[in-house]
Amino acid sequence: MDSVLTARLARQRQNQRYRQRATTSGIGPRFQRQGREMLAFCSNDYLGLAGDPRLAEALAKGARRFGTGGGASHLVCGHGEAHERLERRLARLTGYPRALLFSSGYQANLGVISTLLGRGDVALHDRLNHASLLDATRLAGARLERFAHRSADDCAERLASLAGQRRALVVSDGVFSMDGDVADLDPLVAQCERQRAWLMIDDAHGLGVLGEEGGGTRQAQGIAPERIAATVGTLGKALGTQGAFVAGSEALIEALIQFSRPYIYTTSLSPALAWATLTSLDIVRDEPERRAHLSSLVRRFRHEVSSLSEFDLHLMPSETPIQPLVVGPSWRRAPGERGGNEAAALALTAALQEAGLWCSAIRPPTVPEGTSRLRFTLSAVHTHDDLDRLLSGLFEAARRLSRTGRSV
Ligand code: PMP
Q1: Pocket test for ligand 1, best of 113, 177, 235, 362 (most atoms within 8 A of CB)
Q2: The CATH fold of domain 24-49+288-403
Q3: Which protein residue's CA is at the shortest distance from atom 14 of ligand 1?
Q4: What percent of the chain has pLDDT over 90?
Q5: I need a surface site. Which of 12, 117, 177, 308 has the fewest CB within 10 A?
Q6: pLDDT in tens, 183-215
Q7: Ligand 1: which residues within 6 Å by Cβ?
Q8: What is the atom index within ligand 1 of the atom nearest the CA of 234?
């Protein structure tokens, strides 16, 4: 076995796709990494709650009161008071009758799609949907089809061509994790209603961030909850803990409890974490200034980075804390050479790291060829001084690398 795996790993290295984990210590966004201070712009801790002492306190209290682990699955004896309370609060936040906890967003997506669809059914995905939604479709044994990114018209055409199929579920991220843009829910909902398709939104990156009360993409766009059959939210991003939930109708939640294998056959989320997440929800409700500060960072980042266009670096049309900067074609090593901007994205990221600034380089196959990018994620714990540091580091790195004839 090892020789087969070693050969596969070698191919991964050859293709420059080999990824390294970094071990950090400390609390983000200020980490120590290999003895160096790093200011991170790559976490999904959008409201800065993961390091909030109030959550740490609630976690410790929850552990003392309910234990650190659930000890069993929800249907055996792992479903406690903390879970029950959190589900009620999450239902209220998202505007649905009920919510159901899962241990991760990945599992929640597997759980919903594999319960709603089976062989012969179709899941129609936005082309940029998260990998967990695609894996969920495979687990369900359903046919996977895609529509053009954010295009309700293309979705409608494909739905029409599916007429006669047993069942169709339209699936879209709320906020797209690689581009940072947001689904246009109104026309999508209308098309699904017209063609009697079900609609599911994965709002992992919208919950807590978008909407007046942090209720997510649906709230921000003023769509009534009953028009979206299932909404998935995660606890590990803006809410600063871990886990996820599905929000929907009474019937959907009962069906998941009865039939969803990724719900049934796993230990429940830690009750201490469920308890701590109640404190996250208090903060989401009581401190809207976090969302306001985050929005001001996003606006300033976009305004200042737009002056970098001389370097053939391009902001994508994102108004969310996910801000990708696409490395344009003039960064290619030679005209027509594939992957040149991929190398530039890596070189720019490395130069930023040298300056103690940490962002992600996102490359194919995660994004299409020719759209390699640096992805910055902003958080309410970043200060305007942090942003100054990032902007001057980015400018400096781009200038230095472009002076080397862009042969990076
Ligand atoms: N959906 C989306 C859109 C995501 O970006 C992610 C995580 N990156 C997930 C689901 C999975 O959530 P979790 O990390 O809680 O498993």
Answers
A1: 177
A2: Aspartate Aminotransferase, domain 1 (3.90.1150)
A3: 105
A4: 86
A5: 12
A6: 999 999 999 999 999 999 999 999 999 999 999
A7: 104-106, 109, 130, 132, 173, 177, 202, 204-205, 234, 236, 244
A8: 15
Please give the model's pTM, rounded to 2 decimal places.
0.95
SS3 122: strand
Question: Across-strand partners of 102?
Answer: 244
- Could you state, in order of their start, the residue ranges of all structural domains in the chain? 24-49+288-403, 67-286
Residue 408 has pLDDT above 70, yes or no: no
Instruction: Name which residue sits closest to atom 15 of ligand 1, judged by CA.
Output: 105
Q: Which fold has domain 67-286?
A: Aspartate Aminotransferase; domain 2 (3.40.640)
Query: Residues annotated in the binding site for pyridoxal 5'-phosphate, as ranges?
Result: 105-106, 177, 205, 234
Tokens of 292: 């306001």
Q: 131-166, pLDDT tens digit by residue?
A: 999 999 999 999 999 999 999 999 999 999 998 777
